[in-house]
Amino acid sequence: MATRGPVRVAVLGCGVVGTEVVRLLVQQAEDLAARVGAPLELVGVAVRDTSTPRGAAVDPELLTTDAEGLVDRADVVVEVMGGVEPARALILRAIERGAAVVTANKELLGKDGPTLYAAADAAGTDLYFEAAVAGAIPIVRPVRESLAGDRITRVLGIVNGTTNYVLDQMATSGQGLQEAVRQAQELGFAEADPTADVEGYDAAAKAAILASLAFHTRVSAADVHREGIMNLTADDVARAATTGHVLKLLAIAERSGDGVVVRVHPALLPQWHPLASVRGSFNAVFVEAEAAGELMFYGRGAGGTPTASAVLGDVVTVARNKVIGGKGPIESRYAELPVRGVAEAVTRYQVELRVRDLPGVLAQVWQVVADHGVSIETVRQSRAEVYGDHADLLVVTHAATDEALSATVADLQDLPVVVKILSVLRVEGV
Amino acid sequence: MATRGPVRVAVLGCGVVGTEVVRLLVQQAEDLAARVGAPLELVGVAVRDTSTPRGAAVDPELLTTDAEGLVDRADVVVEVMGGVEPARALILRAIERGAAVVTANKELLGKDGPTLYAAADAAGTDLYFEAAVAGAIPIVRPVRESLAGDRITRVLGIVNGTTNYVLDQMATSGQGLQEAVRQAQELGFAEADPTADVEGYDAAAKAAILASLAFHTRVSAADVHREGIMNLTADDVARAATTGHVLKLLAIAERSGDGVVVRVHPALLPQWHPLASVRGSFNAVFVEAEAAGELMFYGRGAGGTPTASAVLGDVVTVARNKVIGGKGPIESRYAELPVRGVAEAVTRYQVELRVRDLPGVLAQVWQVVADHGVSIETVRQSRAEVYGDHADLLVVTHAATDEALSATVADLQDLPVVVKILSVLRVEGV
Predict the structure, then answer these.
(1) Which GO terms describe its biological process (chains A, B) (predicted)?
(2) How far is B405 from chain A (nearest CA, A)?
(3) Do the chains contact at A277 and B279, CB–CB below 8 Å?
(4) What 3-state class would DSSP assign to B241?
(5) B131 to chain A: which residues are within 8 Å by CB?
(6) Does position B414 have pLDDT exceeding 70, yes or no?
(7) pLDDT digits (tens, 9 = 90+) for A177-222
(8) pLDDT tens profile A223-275
(9) H/E element, B240
(10) DSSP letter for each residue of B45-75
(11) Which chain A residues touch B309 with a CB distance below 8 Å?
(12) What is the rounded CA–CA span in Å between residue A47 and residue A19?
């Protein structure tokens, strides 16, 4: 049923993003009302402690610690508190009451998004979350709506600005990983405890959301194969450049047979790939669809103001739907594709091997690889230096399953002529 | 009022895009019905001549030459016939009857979009046109909806695949312009008559649509300052690389004082700019917004299947709105900003001058530039070769109005020590 009069908006949380959302709601009230077709009335801002100062934009009269009571008075609930609980319970309460929900909570959606999407569907209400993936970049709406008549086959994303900044620093300055992380911390691009970023947890949550969205299937962060950047060396990063690549932490969600595989790991990307030029703390999501072909969405992945911009865009859409008495396109016909392990992913490996410099070594390496049904694209000597009777080889394979490739590496390790496996990296985007 | 039963869809035009739209409507009927919340019924396809073969996807029974009669039987009208008339009259007829319209017609919207947007608003019906700008790239919906709570300050686009392919060829192969155009024609990236592309008419139409959208103001292609690529030489393209730039044909729409300036011309972009790595026939639109910061949207700018993907996404949205009995967010609160001439645009020039190699020449050049209130960022000798007593200088200015910069160039031309102005190019993206 269509709302009469103003659309009542509740904001849950008043941190960096919440404060910005409130400021924009107040400052752009007239503009927003024109777009929605009715005024937006900010009915309250739920906080843990009403005595903390909130800045000039937030009217202290609007603050309340009674989040549940606030939810019950709203047509549109904006959840920007973060964390799993009580955000999850409050969102479900709002949905059950038929309120539309806008959330920026990647942790919650990564963990339990499918439950919330299903609840919103069952209640016939909107749940929008543009700000939860890649910050200000409009990616959710294009995937849900613009590509509604298409079939997505693969999504590749740089969705964590901290790790992208760190890898970029290593590439441009030759810094080691620890040093680059320290610098990112000093500049505010990394948290004091960078674990969630550098170990790939943040990227895995976003990968789960992107996969759910792109493939209409239930994916949670626990389903995502995850490798962080902590084992990467300055040498790995520098060598990537010599072979025409850059090293990026990628979130990848793709169809694989009758299922989907979702993974987060460092990978080599060719320098000509559009994702390769995504620098510093920027994010980008590269989408491959059957009809549309290749698409990329690029922008600020984090920050209070960019995130608030994405939240406001969602508020306008769901408030407009309230005014006309409906909800946006239905996107949750869950295909329920099975989520497969990384072993099934089709990828390519670059393996650096230190071998004894004897006749016939290359033939032995070639044979081990061929025994796994894998073929080699290139072999080159990776370093000019000579180490006694050792040589370092850089082997790049053709595409094969991750299972076959990792079994190949294990067998190479056992080969008597192989002194050491120096590094193993996946190659994507080709 | 909400539609009961199936949503009746009429397709006007059955060329490359129309055929693909029909194919996708038929093949994905079940999927589309689930998303819309009601089946889509294809009630007819308007063509000029029903006897032309249309391929397997198009049921000959659905073909009709009575486009008006077909429009009158539809809830959603998909216009993919192209050209100004009769497309314009048919779209207005559909809007007046309260049907939602989806169009891919950049020529029509570039010429007379504001009339159509206003008509749709007055009738309270949807007019969607994702496919009319940058083909398959979702740009209209992000700008209209995701950025609804933000303020766009500038849009920079590579919106013509033909010219981008040609400039890319010149850069990578050293070909001259004529040769690169010929090759683009052979590969199907350029028409037999490439005027609309190389003279910037196509880009100007898209610039007008983007400007209308971004600034809620009435801009038509006739308001757009337009320069094509025909005067660019292999030398211009090669020299760009030596100064860390690439040459691109850009469509630029930006706020300027209390108005907007819209222009299409070749420009030097720094190689690190995200638009610089847009290669071949791809398109991209770079958006600067106050809260969201920098965003970029990248993908296929043309082609039957990518364009059909964008059309289908729009069909799902407007059909869904029909089912729930409303229309999408209101975007046409026309700000009616005045459209200013290119003279007011703030930009930078790179000017290559052949000068007499005499003492004091640089001081004279510097003085002429300063007399216009312009300052110089760098001066360098542009060629190692010596031409008798001549030297070639490459002067890059700081930002100033186009009016001041072009007056500066005119005065430099009159300076006795200046033999010749060899080239003048704008520098953008910094």
Answers:
(1) methionine biosynthetic process; threonine biosynthetic process
(2) 32
(3) no
(4) helix
(5) none
(6) yes
(7) 999 999 999 988 888 899 999 999 999 999 999 998 899 888 999 9
(8) 999 999 999 999 999 999 999 999 999 999 999 988 999 999 999 999 989 99
(9) helix B234-242
(10) EE-S-TTS---TTS-GGGEES-HHHHHTT-S
(11) 147, 149-150, 289, 291-292
(12) 11
Interface of B with A in 284-323 (CB under 8 A): 284, 289, 291-300, 303, 305-306, 308-317, 320-321, 323
| CATH code, B145-300 | 3.30.360.10
Using CA atoms, how far residue B192 sits from A161, A199, B182, B195, B199, in Å, is 45, 54, 9, 9, 14
**ipTM of this predicted complex?**
0.83
Q: Which residues of chain A have pLDDT under 50?
A: 1, 332
Which residues, listed in sequence order, are joined to residue B225 by a DSSP beta bridge?
B263
The CATH code belonging to domain A7-136+304-324 is: 3.40.50.720
Domain boundaries, chain B: 7-136+304-324, 145-300, 345-427
Q: Which of residues 70-129 of B touch A (CB under 8 A)?
A: none
**Cβ atoms A282, A136 nearer than 8 A:** no
Rounded percentage of chain A residues whose pLDDT exceeds 70: 96
Q: With an 8 Å Cβ cutoff, are A306 and B292 in contact?
A: yes
What CATH superfamily is the domain A345-427?
ACT domain (3.30.70.260)
Residue in A290, A148, A331 with CA at minimum distance from that of residue B316:
A148
B-proximal residues of A, 133-152, CB under 8 Å: 136-138, 141-142, 145-150
Same fold? B145-300, B345-427: no
Q: Do A291 and B305 touch (CB under 8 A)?
A: yes
Tally A–B CB contacts below 8 A.
214
Scanning every residue of chain B, which has its alpha carbon at the shortest distance from the alpha carbon of A322?
B326
Q: Which residue of A has its CA nearest to B334?
A: A34
| Residue in A34, A148, A325 nearest the CB of B316 | A148
- Surface-to-core class of residue B106, CB atoms within 10 Å of its CB (0-12 exposed, 13-18 middle, 19+ buried): buried
Alpha-carbon gap, residue B71 to B64, rounded angstroms: 11
Per-residue CA distances from A227 to A162, A193, A202 (Å)? 15, 17, 11
